[in-house]
Amino acid sequence: MDESQGIIHKVCRMYCDNETHREDLFQEIVVQLWKSYPSFKGESKFSTWMYRVALNVAIQDFRKEKKRRFLFLEQFEFKEPASAPKSEFKNERIDALYKAISNLDKIERAIMLLHLDEVPNEEIAAIVGITQNYVRVKMTRIRKKLAITIKTD
Amino acid sequence: MEFTEFKSSWNLLQQDVITTDTVDKSTIKTSVHSKSKSEISKIKRGLHIKFVIGSVSIVFAAALALLSLLNPAFNPLDFIFSPTETAAFLGVMALSLAAMVIFNLRAYSQIKAVETSALNLKENLQHFIDAMKKAIAFNIYSDVLITPIIITWAYYAYAFEGHTLAFDGRTALLFILPILTGVFSYLLGKFIQNLKFGKYLGRLSSYLDSLQKK
After folding, report:
1. Closest CA to A98 of B209, B121, B16, B21
2. Which residue has the higher pLDDT, A67 or B158?
3. Residue B35: closest CA among chain A residues belongs to which residue?
4. Is residue B129 part of a domain?
């Protein structure tokens, strides 16, 4: 786990918009990896298994925000992570990357992360649970979405 | 920025991750043994507390029911019930609490099963949404069970003080009241759970839809 922590950090960077959230998600992923380790049977690469657990945790993760009150009842809003705050990363290119990613939903972020990490389409399909053909379709849609974001900037 | 530039930016980010985020072995060891802060874990802990309180209450109610039956002079509810009525009320409460605890246990096991999953993203989302819906339903059932019983017994205590059961409106209400309060508390429970988790589950369902359609 010590050697593979890069995967966890990248997932945290992809799904969190501040340091506290990143630390919490990192801890949560580490806990779940530890608990899920008995389920790793060596049928897939260790990194594939790790991506699966980490991405499942990140997708299920929700930040609760108290929003409205109905008499004594509270309605909760669940915050989607936005892009990382501009001041946090000094590099403009990383900022631009975060800005583009912030327009993607959690599933698109997962596919984008795997694609940027140069995971082969076959493995992306196995991690996400869709066909390789659908991975390509998804990537085309993500590229289009990103192109629109880039254009509007 | 062109799409092709994303890759080089990603490499820059990887460098940043290595230099700023990497933690030592001891930090990882601490994380492994620390308590989960996720909302799901908080729900699980809430169910755990409910289970403990429910179990203690069952023992307490059953013991009081038994004592009231064996020793009529001991009647903790003598201000409203006769010793037999007290034993019946506490016996029903113990049984309802037992059912409530079973519902809570089922909700707990549903949540626990999906908490650690190495399934692919699509299957995991499917399982997670189903488990959350079942857990919410079991939680509603457990709450629905107790309210009508307490209200109906309270009604019985005050409406039948000095009266016997007969074919009249008073007795009819004794049977209608649990149905009405049951339906009301079910609808209220459903509304509250929907207020809490409706949007979250809706969002997860939309992710699942995006993986199902082409």
Report:
1. B16
2. B158
3. A31
4. yes
Residue B55's pLDDT band, with cuts at 50, 70 and 90, is very high
Structural domains in chain B (count): 1
Host domain of residue A53 = 5-152
The band of A121, judged by pLDDT with boundaries at 50, 70 and 90, is: very high
Residue A3 has a pLDDT of: 57
Specify the pTM. Answer: 0.81
Query: Among residues of chain B, what percentage have pLDDT more than 90?
Result: 24
Residue with tokens 């209450």: B57
Closest to B114 in 3D by CA, of A36, A27, A34: A36
Establish if B114 belongs to a structural domain.
yes
What is the tally of structural domains in chain A?
A: 1
Choose, out of B25, B37, B38, the residue to mutate when testing the contact with A (most A CBs < 10 Å).
B38
In B56-115, the residues whose Cβ lies within 8 Å of chain A are: 115
Dihedral sign of CA atoms A96, B19, B21, A36 in order: positive
Does B213 touch chain A if contact means CB atoms closer than 8 Å? no
